[in-house]
Amino acid sequence: MNLAFSYSFTQSIEVLYYLELKSRLQKNEYLTIKSIAETLDMPMPSMKRLVSLLKNSGLIQSKKGVNGGLALVRRVEDISFYDVLEAVEGRSPIFKVYKDFETSSFVHKDEAEKMIDQLDASLDKAESQLMVTLKEKKISELF
Question: What is the pLDDT of residues 39-69, one digit of tens each?
Fold first, then answer.
């Protein structure tokens, strides 16, 4: 089994990291979308979509004009991997258990229903543990 989020999740982390890195090294307050896309080798349509998602979630801001571009809104110490995941992937559950079949046709109906409940509970627990880990991990830890 190969469980994966879209590339948007890790690309967004890379964008936030790069914004912070450039801010630290060159004191650049704002970077253009074009310069970020070129440096990170991301297609411009993908970059624009990510920027929109990150802006809507309050992780970055944009400024128009000659010295405009993108900048972080929050400190990287305050941005968790979960914040990024939620910004780009939304709040949909990772695991979806199919429960809409009719267990009355099963010879062992009670066991089938118990299995479904246990499967659902196990996957909920696994997802909760992953979310705790993502909430604990901060962008700043990548430096």
Answer: 999 999 999 999 999 999 999 999 999 889 9
